[in-house]
Amino acid sequence: MASVLPTTAAINHDSGKALELFARCGYAARGMVYCLVGGLSLLAAFGSGEAPRGSTGALEALLAQPLGKMLLLFIAVGLIGFGIWRLVQAFLDPDRNGTSWSAVGTRCGYAIGSVMYFGLAATALSIAFGSGSSSDDRTAQDWTAWLMSQPFGRWLTGAVAIGVVLGGLAFIIEAWRGDQMAKHVHAGRTGDAWIGMVGRIGYAGSGIVFVLVGALLLIAAWHSNAAEARGLGGALARLEGQPYGSALLAVVALGLFAFGAFGILQGIYRHIDPPTVRDAETAVSHVLRH
Q1: With the C-alpha atoms ordered 40, 42, 48, 54, is the resulting torsion angle positive or negative?
Q2: DSSP code of 181?
Q3: Which of 64, 79, 163, 265 has the highest count of CB atoms within 10 angstroms of its CB?
Q4: Exposure of 35 by Cβ count < 10 A (0-12 exposed, 13-18 middle, 19+ buried)?
Q5: Is residue 6 situated within a structural domain?
């Protein structure tokens, strides 16, 4: 009599398909958030009368639209899936980045990013169910105040700030080089080329914002004043307040919108090779041995 229990191959196939779906929905959900932030910032740059909004403000604006709650729930679920995918990328390395110093830095960034996406998912759920949520700036200031309250908190905050700045610079360098931009995207020769161009514009815009957020956090650490920290919305508002600020904001907002569009395209065209159960077992045994 044939066994009715699922085989290892079937389990691997089913779990792999589920993880791939999580990842694709996650790329799309992250892309939608950045498209919202970029689009609203473009309106602010062209004189809509409103200040630029960060991710929380963009999600709140989405709630007021038709089917807004349903879209928020999709974004929340997608971001949870993306957080899971980032953890998988960090610990199981399905993209075969390896263990070089640059690869380890990338994988650490994935792990840190997973926490951010889980937090953003929680924010989307809070907004969808009407329980309210703090602004990006308030959240950044609360986290900075907590970090500064720890032993060597000022130095820890400075280290985090430098990490954010370096992450932003890495995005800008990647936008300039462009050699890894569409490495895992397969949409045909023409499709890969224009998707890569969208990605380069997006990485440049988001890199500038990360550098600005990190710089403001570094200033907060230097002055031991958490109130000087800013989130995405606050950083964009600071940018708008500079000479030729509206033009600068418009350029960066276009980059953020492009980054969001690139994320949506990744959700459609990115090659995703989800690890198997055996891959996970191998990774765990490797950690235990060391």
Answers
A1: positive
A2: T
A3: 79
A4: buried
A5: no
Distance (Å, rounded) from C-alpha 84 to C-alpha 26? 9
Please tell me the total count of domains within the chain: 1
Structural domain span for residue 86: 14-289
188/185 Cα distance (integer angstroms)? 9
> Would you say the C-alpha torsion 24, 27, 32, 35 has a positive or negative sign?
negative
* Integer-rounded Cα radius of gyration of the chain: 20
Domain-located, residue 62: yes
Rounded CA gap, 140 and 31, in Å?
A: 22
What is the three-class DSSP state of 62? Answer: helix
* 8 Å CB contact between 285 and 19: no
Q: Looking at the domain assignment, is residue 267 inside a domain?
A: yes
Question: How many other C-beta atoms can be found within 10 angstroms of the C-beta atom of residue 154?
Answer: 15
> Tens digit of pLDDT for each residue in 236-271?
988 888 888 899 999 999 999 999 999 999 999 998
Mean pLDDT of 56-84: 92
Asked if residue 96 belongs to a domain, the reply is yes
Q: State pLDDT tens for residues 176-200.
A: 987 666 678 888 878 888 998 999 9
Backbone angles phi, psi at 270, to 5 degrees: -65, 140
Cβ neighbour number for residue 61 with a 10 Å cutoff = 17
Spatial separation of the C-alpha atoms in residues 176 and 204, rounded to whole Å = 8
d(CA 142, CA 169): 25
Assess contact for 251 and 202: CB atoms under 8 A.
Answer: no
What pTM was estimated for this model as a whole? 0.88
